[in-house]
Amino acid sequence: MARFEACYLTHRGYVRENNEDALLLQDIVLCTDSMERPEFVVFDGDYALFAVADGMGGHRGGEIASRLVLEVLSMEKPKSPQEINHTLHRARDRLEDFAKENPFYYGLGCAVAGLVYVSGSLVVFNVGDCRVYGLKDGSAHRLTVDHTEVERLVRRGLIDQRSAKNHPQRHILTSALVGSPNHGEFELFAKPVKKYREFLICSDGLWECLEEEELSLDCDKLIKLALKMGGRDNISYIRLKIT
């Protein structure tokens, strides 16, 4: 049995009109405008599921999409990459059903990233540009792969990571969970992880405004620094330690 110590926060930032991010901490789906300060939760068990979802900018109902996707993850409790894939397809179907019932929200969608722990085994996953980092020796190491146009350019060697952070196409997703028959398929990244026991799961509102070495800071310092950098996007993260 493991112990999970999680510090978490979600904040609207200073520019966006509402917060389209949401957090999943085991069975709790948290959707709120702005938390004043990070909060903490500790529990023991053989299974754990943590995730961050980020509603797609420029589409109606981003906050609804984030909540619905995390609710499906919470209910399904996937345990393997295959089960994560199946669960996220069911979450995408849930978005499509919602859009059919509420045509005003047609095309609602989100990115998501998370971590599943099952009896000593860990799997990280993402769709879109939310990320999971492994934290070790004061450094943050990205464990997931962004599904963006800019990531494609980086992988083809056309730009480097530093240029990618300010590229005009950095917010264009190549994969997301979308409530539309035209977006039935998505690209999932999921892989087992062994060498880390501390993690940061976050939306792009955090990682985009901080340097990689700053992402290993403690929970309180992360939000203070992100807001100091302007708070241009919603900011959400879970900092997790497993012992």
What form results from the Cα inertia axes? globular
User: Which percent bin holds the helix content?
Assistant: 25-40%
Number of helices: 6
Say which CATH homologous superfamily is assigned.
PPM-type phosphatase domain
Determine the structural class based on helices, strands and strand pairing: alpha+beta
CATH class, named Alpha Beta
Based on DSSP secondary structure assignment, what is the total number of beta strands?
Answer: 13
Could you walk me through the main structural features you see in this protein, from its secondary elements to its overall organization?
- By secondary structure, the chain is of the alpha+beta class.
- It has a single domain (about 1-240), classed as 4-Layer Sandwich (Phosphatase 2c, domain 1), CATH 3.60.40.10.
- It contains six helices and 13 strands.
- It has helices spanning about 60-75, 80-100, 150-155, 160-165, 205, 220-230, and strands spanning about 1-10, 20-25, 30, 40-45, 45-55, 110-120, 120-125, 130-135, 140, 175-180, 190-195, 200, 235-240.
- The strands form two sheets. Strands 2, 3, 5, 6, 7, 10 and 11 form a seven-stranded antiparallel sheet that branches. Strands 4-1-13-12-8-9 form a six-stranded antiparallel sheet.
- Helix 1 packs across helix 2 (about 80-100).
- The longest helix is centred in the middle third of the chain and has 21 residues, at about 80-100.
- The chain is globular and about 45 Å long.
- The mean pLDDT is about 95.
